[in-house]
């Protein structure tokens, strides 16, 4: 089954972009926050909390996101493991986890690096992304940056600012998914190679709601509007997204 990664930036005009290059010198940045996952047990509660529940999360997803349940989120062997399971749980047929830094840490601009190995199989939908930390948040008006989303089939995106790039071995090994973000640019990369670049053209908040603090989310959804377009293969479970580290740098 082919695997395709895509990035979306919500609330913006449709444009498909490839092979843009924009990089600030790494000397401009210093590490301000990280989780190296060099411990064992539940995720560090000083850095992460959980989104809890089911209901589709606006995307008709099938999983129930659990809280502090080792079967779905744990740290072992130097990695964060977010595991989706086929099991009946509180009215849902699948369980998984969604970890967020909101209320623990958020940032306005920076360089973000997340080294991860993705799950495989029809119906999985892992994501590494950011949301505005406004409270209450008005989605999508307050912005969303998807550093990485992946589904288990080829597809076409017809909305939002987006770029798509193939990564055939994303489930076989680790890759570094990166974001550089400042008041003028958003640049998204894999293993240091840029594949999406978006410039602030100063058309106002509706086109660029990214001059505010945003927080990180890591999750593994099952099914849904994109992940489940071709169904869910129940023979694949359990499936996991492994995260080696999350690092945030600022100038």
Structure overview:
This protein has 251 residues and is mainly beta. It has a single domain (4-250), classed as Jelly Rolls (Sandwich). It has strands at 4-9, 15-16, 30-35, 49-51, 63-65, 73-76, 79-89, 92-96, 98-100, 110-117, 124-132, 144-151, 161-166, 175-181, 185-190, 193-199, 214-222, 239-250. Strands 3, 5, 6, 7, 8, 10, 14, 15, 16 and 18 form a ten-stranded mixed sheet that branches. Strand 7 and strand 8 form a beta hairpin. The protein is globular.
What's the main sheet like? 10 strands, mixed
- Identify the CATH class: Mainly Beta
Helix content: under 10%
Give the C-alpha Rg.
Answer: 17 Å
CATH architecture: Sandwich
Short description:
This protein has 251 residues and is mainly beta. The chain has strands spanning 4-9, 15-16, 30-35, 49-51, 63-65, 73-76, 79-89, 92-96, 98-100, 110-117, 124-132, 144-151, 161-166, 175-181, 185-190, 193-199, 214-222, 239-250. Residues 1-23 and 155-160 have low confidence and may be disordered.
């Amino acid at each position: 089954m082919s695997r395709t990664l895509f990035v979306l930036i919500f609330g913006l005009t449709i444009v498909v972009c490839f092979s843009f290059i924009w990089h600030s010198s790494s000397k401009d940045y210093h590490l301000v926050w990280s989780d190296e996952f060099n411990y064992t047990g539940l995720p560090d509660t000083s850095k992460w909390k959980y989104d809890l529940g089911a209901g589709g999360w606006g995307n008709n997803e099938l999983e129930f996101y659990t809280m502090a349940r080792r079967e779905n989120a744990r740290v072992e062997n130097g990695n964060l493991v977010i595991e989706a399971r086929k099991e009946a749980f509180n009215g849902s047929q699948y369980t998984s986890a969604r970890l967020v830094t909101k209320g623990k840490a958020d940032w306005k601009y920076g360089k973000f690096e997340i080294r991860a190995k993705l799950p495989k199989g029809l119906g999985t939908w892992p994501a590494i992304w950011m949301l505005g930390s406004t409270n209450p948040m008005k989605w999508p008006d307050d912005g969303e940056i998807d550093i990485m989303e992946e589904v288990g089939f080829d597809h076409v995106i017809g909305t939002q600012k987006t770029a798509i790039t193939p990564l055939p071995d994303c489930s076989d090994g680790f890759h570094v998914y990166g974001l550089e973000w400042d008041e003028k640019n958003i640049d998204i990369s894999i293993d240091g190679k840029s594949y999406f670049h978006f410039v602030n053209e100063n058309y106002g908040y509706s086109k660029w709601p990214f001059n505010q603090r945003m927080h990180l989310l890591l999750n593994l959804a099952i099914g849904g509007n994109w992940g489940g377009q071709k169904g869910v293969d129940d023979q694949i479970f359990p499936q996991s997204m492994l995260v080696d580290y999350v690092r945030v740098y600022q100038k």
